[in-house]
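User: I'm preparing a small set of examples for a lab meeting where we compare how different chains pack in three dimensions. I only have the primary sequence for this one, and I'd like the structure in token form so I can line it up with the others. Please keep the answer compact; I'll paste it straight into my notes.
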Amino acid sequence: MDPDSTEMVNEIKDKVILHWNCRGLVEFPEAIRIYGSHIQEIYLKWNKLTTLPPWIIELFNVTNLYMYGNLIKELPLELCQMTQLTVLDLSANKLEQIPPCIGNLINLKSLLLNQNFIDKLPVEMNKLHNLETLSISGNKLIALPEWIGSLSKLKELNADNNHLKELPNRLTLSPEIAIISVCSNRLKYLPLNGFVSSPCIRFDANIYLNYLSYPLLYQLISQVQDLYTYDQRSVLGYGDNKTMFLIVLINAIHIYNHRCFKTDCQNTVLDTSIKLNIKINASYGKDTDFIIELPRQLLKVHSVHENTVISLWELALRKTYAERYNHTLNISTSPMYVTVQYEPTATNNHQSFDFTTSSINYASYNLLVNGPVSVCVHSQCQQPIFTEAWVIVGISHYAESITTVALCCCKRCASEFTKHSNMTVIHDWCHTT
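Assistant: Understood. Below is the structure token output for the 433-residue chain.
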């Protein structure tokens, strides 16, 4: 045995945590297999490993495995049998796919997959019920699956530098989520509903994003009201009519939006969504028109002046959802306060959803499970909204340069909301293609 191997073996025998970063290793050291059954944490960052050996399954006591900065292209199925793992870091490798069997790692608390070439997450990951941190920044993801919102212990979601066009609606129902970071994507909108857990949301450098929903905007503002004693309008400011800066300090976390909330951004994504042409009548200078896109769940929208009967489908969705869930949105503007409550309704006759496989029923099931696109913002209503709504677009007293969208369930609620809300300006809008 050469001196280097002897030193390696002695180090393995003497420690329970191996720090072997930046050693130029091209293979996973087999000495760990022979002498390292007691090892609990392995750090092999910044080496030149191209694969993990099948015998890795024999390392029964390893709970933390850090493989950041290697050349791994594919994961062995044996890795998925290491059910004792709580931390798995595979960032900065060459991964294009994640095997479905990763859902077997039911004790994982932290899964780091940053800086790879992943374009899809396997649905089997929805079995990671102990997952607290999911970090998938710097990949090729176009969409995040709705089941992410069903990970009951998820606290932090990092998905910066992808190609995301939208966020899962079910994420608004996630009970523990505290941080959502989706900077440098292609988002055209954030979820319109309020978040149950009122998370910090970082969304810098989404150049197509040009409005916020009324509930979400007020959640962001209300999170900082206890940290400042001055006028809340100073929390949200702007530089000029071309660039909007949103600076919200929440627990020492900055949300800094550069080039967001512009009225002149191009419209090149999400062509299947409803688009509204917003008309701003300027008190000075020339009038301005710009376009916003609404979430894909909305299939029909009405103006505050439009008196029409909503579809039977929408009525059925609202009734079915209201019978099973208590979902309320409370917005108080003086002082600023936002709460969202969501919980199953406790009834003796509570039954699971029963739908056939027909396309319309499958769509209904998905809408109900993923939650409403919003709850009616009229404080005396609280009706869930799924596919059809009355839309009010305007400027809030508390954020005078951010276009704000509020959804109501009917014309009466929309009229009452416009009378009593603190929107200082209501914009006219029309459909566009």
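A couple of notes for your slides: Residues 229-271 have pLDDT under 50 and may be disordered. The longest strand covers residues 399-408.

User: Perfect, thanks.
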